[in-house]
Design goal:
Strand order of the largest sheet: 5-7-6
Order of helices and strands: EEEEHEEEHH
Number of strands: 7
Shape: flat
Length: 176
Amino acid sequence: MILLVAATAAGSGQPTALTDRRDPTPVEVLGARVVKTPPPTRSVTIAIATAEPPPTPPTADPPPSADSTPRPQPSPPTPPAWSTTCADALAYLVANQAPGFDSTCADGIALGHLGFTCVNQPGMCEGMRIIRIACPAPFVYMNEAHNSWVLTGERSGIDPYGQGNAAERAACNPHR
């Protein structure tokens, strides 16, 4: 930020130079001579203390039990391939698709695909700009938002977010 300040000599209307705040030269303010003094300097010391955790005491192995067969550990639950919904997909599209597109998200809506984008194609979307999402996985709706810009000539490259991993594709297939 730049701040420009102009001053005039007392009543003359002629510009005068401003002096540095630390300059003790007397100046005239409202008819009185004033000597500016520099503000006091302050010193601040910051000390950062770090503490290392105490060493962990050695532990002895527990005594063997009568039954020394290893017990199987439960496997962690499998996370879902994605956790987004059609509402998430539509919110993303509204914020990121090219202007003028009508977006819809529902199972089976993408003509057998996970998603598709169409601009004025006879027999498919004649006179329209549409995005259809069958699977609300992020790679699907992010690709279609990008593709809307490609089809309007603003970007290049189709599906830059890829086709998802094997788990995502398997989870998406029933939505086609």
